[in-house]
Amino acid sequence: MLRTTALFLLILFAGNLSAQPISYVKPTTPAAQDTAFNRGSGIKSIAVSKTNLKRLTNLGEVWGFLKYYHPAVCSGQFNWDAQLFRFLPRYLKASDDAAAYKMIENELDSLGAVKLCKKCGEKEKGEILQADYGHIFDNGNLPNSLTTKLGFIRDNHSEEGEHYYIAKIKNVGNPEFKNEIAYDGDIYPDAGLRLLALYRYWNMIQYFYPYRDVIGEKWSDVLLRLIPVFINAKNVTDYEMACVALVNSIHDGHASIGLKRVVVENYFGKYITPLRTSFIEGKLVVVGNFMDTLNVAANFQKGDVIEKIDGMSVEQLVKKYLHLMPGSNQPYQYAVLSYPTGPLFRSAKPIAHIQIRRNGALKTITQRKFDAGNYSKTIFEHLRKIGQPDSAFQVLPGNIGYIYPALLKQDDIDKIKQDFLNTKGLIIDLRCYPATFMPFVYGQWLKCESSVFAKASTMSLRRPGSFYDDPIPPNGEHNPACYNKKIVIIVNEKTMSQAEYTTMALSTAAKVTVLGSQTAGADGDISAIVLPGDIKTAISGVGIFYPDGSATQRKGVKIDKEVKPTIKGVVAGRDELLEAALAIIGN
After folding, report:
1. Which of 4, 45, 48, 454 sits 20 to 30 Å CA-CA off 198?
2. Which keywords appear in this protein's UniProt record, sorted alphabetically (predicted)?
């Protein structure tokens, strides 16, 4: 279902974050014409105290609520970022909570009256995730007069007219975050902009993230926890790593960040080793190299178990870096962590001392490294080709059809049908990202009858924060000439997004076995987000579920037969998942 995956520039894993640009409007609305703070908030520092922390948390929640609910803000009558920057200095000087919250109430009153909407109270059908407003309506948190006014705005919110900051993407339903200023004039935003970054992202998730309920912690706690981190970030590296911590808090494989090269080099180092590794049987194992340079092929063998890197054990390194890796679940995070350009093999030094265990004996290898930034395109090209077969489809020994979707072309289906007509069975290797959209065209070929394979949840503009059931058309059709033979779909942690959606769609054929290990658990069309300092990220913007309502986010697709690689198999150069798939069809 997803058209593109997210790009984590640190890892060079896959995809392109610019595929869905942020939309802007011509400067005809008052919000667009208010450019007073487009180059910065002018707020250089913010004191963080226990009192201020609570007030700043409440302000962030109310600010976001009004951004998406108040008609004057929704219609573009106010540049809501600029209003925050005008209000914040006065708010920070409030003598006590009563004075602070009275300021919020006065600011609310200045936006103008909200009209009564008789139809707005009617309940929409198919709600599967209710709106959450953080602490705004908690008893005793805010003054009753303010809470009452906010409640009236909530209950009388209408989706009539175009919203200045948010829209639904046509024919999909995921959020389009519009008119968000990138504040790209300075890569290290001032204190006001850093706080805005947190407020902006937190409220986008609060009101438009379909998987808010499976994040793993109460989202309002994240706002409270990270306010000091963002305010106290003393340089661009601190700020961008705060953004990483924020984005990783939602545990979404699509929610990665394109870090600036200066940040990557400052935090992780610029030198890498041209070595490929993977976590197998709980150990970091060499599986090959991606550039036959710096004598790496002579120094390492497939199956070498890495024990230490520059004196630190692998366990220590995992503990240090795992929380910085994007991902919906641990298998995907471990894959990103062990990627050649990932933090395990980055450092500020051009020499690495890597301790390995080979045939039971320990050995330390001194390995030269190279500047990753100077070879970024070359690295990506080498990595992209590793493990790819010679063609998108072929007939394997034993008369078994094989499809590698990353190499497919849109018009390959006719030749595949002809070439595979008399094959004994079919393997679809989805340890990759499909190059063409397969669920329906391939579903018509593989399924003998039509059936539903998934359902979606999409956001509400009428009541932001709520999500509703959004049916997905069935795939397949009544087809007596369907490919009614054994099919094995191979998956692992590299099976992500459209690959997971494709697995769900094609696994509803009659004789399918899904084989492998837990997939990435990130499905649904992405929505692009930009934060101050021109930080680009994204989220899974549509919820994807099996027809019975069971989740795919964080969990991955349903596996019929679990098979994982072994160290012994790596040493022997075997593809144990492919072997298992061949055995199923051969029996």
Report:
1. 4
2. Signal
Nearest C-alpha neighbor of 502 from the set 478, 475, 527 = 475
Query: What whole-number percentage of the chain has pLDDT above 70?
Result: 95
SS3 (DSSP) at 378: helix
The span from the CA of 573 to the CA of 562, in Å, is: 20
Other C-beta atoms closer than 10 Å to the C-beta of 116 total: 9
Residue appearing with tokens 């995956």 = 5
Number of helices (H) and strands (E), helices first, in the chain?
19, 23
Going from the C-alpha of 201 to that of each of 8, 82, 194, 219, the distances in angstroms are 18, 16, 11, 11
| pLDDT tens figures, 465-511 | 999 999 999 999 999 999 999 999 999 999 999 999 999 999 999 99
Q: Which helix (H) or strand (E) holds 288?
A: strand 283-289
Beta strands, E only, 382-511? 393-396, 400-403, 425-429, 455-459, 467-471, 486-491
Task: Give 419-450 as a DSSP string.
Answer: HTTT-SEEEEE-SS--SS--TTHHHHHH-SS-
What are the pLDDT digits (tens) for 114-145? Answer: 999 988 877 778 999 999 999 999 999 999 99
From 169, 254, 168, 251, select the one nearest 213 (Cα to Cα).
251
pTM for this model (two decimals) = 0.93
Sorted by where each starts, the structural domains of the chain and their CATH numbers stand as 388-586 (3.90.226.10)
Q: What value does the CA radius of gyration of the chain take, rounded to a whole number of Å?
A: 26
What digits encode the pLDDT tens for the residues 533-554?
A: 999 999 999 999 999 999 999 9
> For residue 493, how many C-alpha atoms fall within 13 Å in the half-sphere facing its CB?
21
E strand or H helix at 97, and its extent?
helix 97-109
Q: Which helix (H) or strand (E) holds 225?
A: helix 219-231
